[in-house]
Amino acid sequence: MARSSAAHGANEAYIVGAVRTPVGSRKGALIGAHPAELGAHVLAELMNRTGADPAAVEDVIMGCVSQVGPQSLDLARTAWLSAGLPENVPGVTIDRQCGSSQQAVHFAAQGVLSGTQDLVVAAGVENMVMVPMGASVQYALDNGLPIYGEGWTRRYGDQEISQYRGAQLMCEKWDIKRSELEEYALESHRRAVAAAADGRFAEQIAPLRVGEAVVDADEGPRADTSLERMAQLPPLREGWSLTAAVSSPLSVGAAAVLIASADAVERHGLTPRARVHSLAVVGDDPVYMLTGPIPATRRVLDRAGLTVDDIDVFEVNEAFASVPIAWARETGADLARTNPNGGAIALGHPLGATGAVLLTKLVHELERGGGRYGLQVMCEGGGQANATLIERV
């Protein structure tokens, strides 16, 4: 039997709004969108859609991975102000790698559950074309400086530490063949294309005007892909199973979620859509890097007093196809209920934004399908993972 969230705090943390931009592709219409403007767009839309008083927001917590150039100078603060929202509201930008905005949700929920805050925005943004992945370590590379210090080297040696190697190591450990990766990737595109055609993303997306055009749909899903096309792609490295087709692409996007206490819901006339039921964050092997969702799922379910069979919808970030495949094998979760509207392989993975994007998708899918419980989990750099379990209300 599920434990009440009252066991974790005197308050409830409600999700009262969740919105995202379309996720843009590396050659799409959003590549020139300034990250602060992307963030401003979803922040303003979140306030408009929920009807919350923006001056009552106590903090804006925004995830962003590559915090340099246009994504520097505390992007949470500049995005909020760029939206024309009240100056009295502070902002902080955080980095837990790919899970940055999922961690933003955790921090926001924890503030509310602790009783120290009542209304907090959790958000995320990343323009991976304007600010390339790895830009935050480029200074060290350009100046011949080590990325890791002596302590790390003593512990892990000088072996390659990368998400690509981690994804390949997972293929080898779980004996995942290239054909299985490609079949999974094809299904991700199929589901995303079908969901878009069915209008499932329409309510969660805040369309963006770019010049004379209005971008109101994700740019990544491909209706024309096939196993035959995937089979023609070279591996990312000789002898590997991984190709670009089974990896998440470079992306652009932003998303924002409003977390409120029961008092704030009543005071501001807000409508709860889900409550944050249970939270977990774990560390795992930093060399494999991407295996964290397995222990994170176990921990959050144990904390909630639930099993995988109780979960109606899973959102598992598809950094690479090997991640959800290995995760499902180890947890026993049903892939039919996992990423039902496609995942990051098709829809994209704008790093710091993806956590909030997935939560937005999860809230809307629970509402659409009438499910009760949703679980979101992501692999993250350093061998970490966040898991968030929500309950529709």
From TrEMBL:
Belongs to the thiolase-like superfamily. Thiolase family. PANTHER family: ACETYL-COA C-ACYLTRANSFERASE, BLR7806 PROTEIN. It comes from Allonocardiopsis opalescens. GO terms for molecular function: acyltransferase activity, transferring groups other than amino-acyl groups. Keywords: Acyltransferase, Transferase. This is Acetyl-CoA C-acetyltransferase. Residues 14-262 form the Thiolase N-terminal domain. PROSITE patterns: THIOLASE_2 (PS00737). The active site is at 98 (acyl-thioester intermediate), 349 (proton acceptor), 379 (proton acceptor). It comes from the Bacteria. CDD domains: thiolase. Residues 271-392 form the Thiolase C-terminal domain.
